[in-house]
Amino acid sequence: MPRCDFTRRDLLIWSAVAAAAPAISFSAFDGLASAATPNGDISPANLELVTLTEDRAVITWYTGYTGTDDGTGRMVPAPADGEVHWGTHPGKLHKTATGLSRNTPYHYVELTGLEPGQTYYYQARSLGRPVPPTPFTLISGNAVGTSVFGLDTTGPYSFTTPLPPPGKYLFSIALCNDLHMGETQAGLVGGQPQYIGIQQVPGLPPYPEVMLKSLVEDVTMLGADFLLAAGDISAEAVPADLSTAYRMLGEFGLYRNDYFVTRGNHDRAHIGDPYADCRAGRWQGNDCFEDEFFPGTGEPTYFTQDVQGLRVIGIDTYDKPGNGGDAGALSPGQLSWFRSQLAKDQDRPTIVFGHHPLVVQDSAFPITAGSSLDRMQATTILQDYARMPGLFLHHAGHTHRNKRTVSPLAPRVTLQEVAAGKEYPGGFSILRLYTGGYALNFYKSRSDLAREWSERSRQEILGYWPQFALGAAVSDRNIMVERDLSGLHPVRGRKPHGRVLAAR
Fold first, then answer.
1. Residue 15 is inside which H or E element, if any?
2. For residue 43, what is the enclosing H or E element?
3. CB 330 within 8 A of CB 380
4. What is the pLDDT along the chain (504 residues), one digit of tens a residue?
5. Which of 102, 144, 248, 430 is deepest in the core (most CB within 10 A)?
């Protein structure tokens, strides 16, 4: 499957699948703009139900000039109005919501005041035209609703809001990964010319910085009290890029107090002049990631942290030698430490976060060893998870997609892959904790520049990227689970939008 550091073998397998897939209804990429020029006719496209909570929904889409190609395979962006008509009956969409911007190609509309457990119907329109869903030609899925209502028509489509977690609200944690600070082209696969890299529009800020800036602003606005960044903080662990990530994450709060970081395969120790001033890596080269985020002498790159009574375990899933393209792994010493942590206080509410997933399933593309953690280690860890009543969530990145998996080896633990922060769909998840359970909801980063880049980067992998990255179902990015979390402590003294007044 598409992920960080494909091997050539991975590429050949995937290419065969892509070549056999039905054609998507846009022109082939040639790296050049189409000869067609805007004639004033505008078409809406790519409708998606991104976020669904008990009381709100976020709906996004795009408008472009019909018949044009901006050189990435999509229509040239066209500003247009956008509104969502909605209600509790498909024949009576009597309420209307408009978006963040009233005249934009990058539409982001939030429906608020929804009732828990209620079925709603909606239709998005630009210039009076209904917006069609993001097409799924490689997978069976649904980008626009929790039921198939309307999928074979122009809408309306439907969704049913979940119930809120039981009990009192405690606090929230933002989950993110794959920031890739320093990257300049998204969607490069194996250096093959048919998969063109998507670059930022000339003159705009680097897209990893655009996306991280918006992410930090958005999670703050949504009231996150803590933030976990699960690896691939940088594109290639260059010191300046790691320093930029540290500085930008610092806009959220204090490192190791408000936000926490783990290593991804892109953050591994490297060889070469840019890394020469960093400490010697344990396995190879020079380790600039350790210098930036774990600077203590002999300090491990994994940890346990108490967060309001919640045990948070951060693991380094590339604690090994390698070029980053193989399976992740914990060193023998780290694995022993991790298992000892899991054996303690097994009833205590616990989450784990690290870069590589333990299990990767249900992909539109072939799954290879490099997609996840070493299989034997993953099996051992899942067997340990099964003995932990308190462990309820494992957050991972690496695959750059939204996907919820429940392994039969540990059925009480949600294994959640979160889409990359740095490219389409471009965002983060918010974990809201209550005394009787939790909700986990994905959000796209919503600044003007973030929405523009997200829509541009959806054209990765010949435009098939959304079928992989968004999530095949709304439930891959929005869930509610009942669990006894009554032993956790609420955060007191919030600033506006959830920030904390006093040091914890």
1. helix 8-20
2. strand 42-52
3. no
4. 555 554 444 544 445 555 555 444 433 333 333 444 566 799 999 999 999 999 999 999 999 999 999 999 999 999 999 999 999 999 999 999 999 888 999 999 999 999 999 999 999 999 999 999 999 999 999 999 999 999 989 999 999 999 999 999 999 999 999 999 999 999 876 555 566 789 999 999 999 999 999 999 999 999 999 999 999 999 999 999 999 999 999 999 999 999 999 999 999 999 999 999 999 999 999 999 999 999 988 899 999 999 999 999 999 999 999 999 999 999 999 999 999 999 999 999 999 999 999 999 887 777 788 889 999 999 999 999 999 999 999 999 999 999 999 999 999 999 999 999 999 999 999 999 999 999 999 999 999 999 999 999 999 988 999 999 999 999 999 999 999 999 999 998 754 333 333 222
5. 144
Q: With helix as H, strand as E and coil as C, how does 194-249 read?
A: CCCCECCCCCCCCHHHHHHHHHHHHHHHCCCCEEEEECCCECCCCHHHHHHHHHHH
Q: Would you call 499 exposed, middle or buried from its count of C-beta atoms within 10 A (0-12, 13-18, 19+)?
A: middle
Q: Coil, strand, or helix at residue 402?
A: coil
Q: In whole angstroms, what is the distance from residue 113 CA to residue 340 CA?
A: 46
Q: Look up residue 293 and give its amino acid.
A: F
Say which residue the tokens 């796209």 belong to: 444
List Cα–Cα distances, 117 to 53, 164, 470, 478, 481, in angstroms. 10, 9, 24, 14, 14
* Burial (0-12, 13-18, 19+ Cβ within 10 Å), 299: exposed
Tokens representing 175 are 């989950």
User: Which tokens in the block code for residue 155?
Assistant: 């809408």
Distance CA 383, CA 358 (A): 12
CA distance linking residue 297 with residue 300, whole number of Å: 9
Provide the residue count of the chain.
Answer: 504
Map tokens 């194996």 to a residue: 190
- Long-range (24+ apart) CB contacts under 8 A made by 280-284 are 282/319, 283/320, 283/321, 283/322, 284/321
* Interatomic CA distance for residues 406 and 413, integer angstroms: 7
Q: How far is CA 421 from CA 166, 276, 295, 297, 327, in A?
A: 30, 29, 25, 31, 22
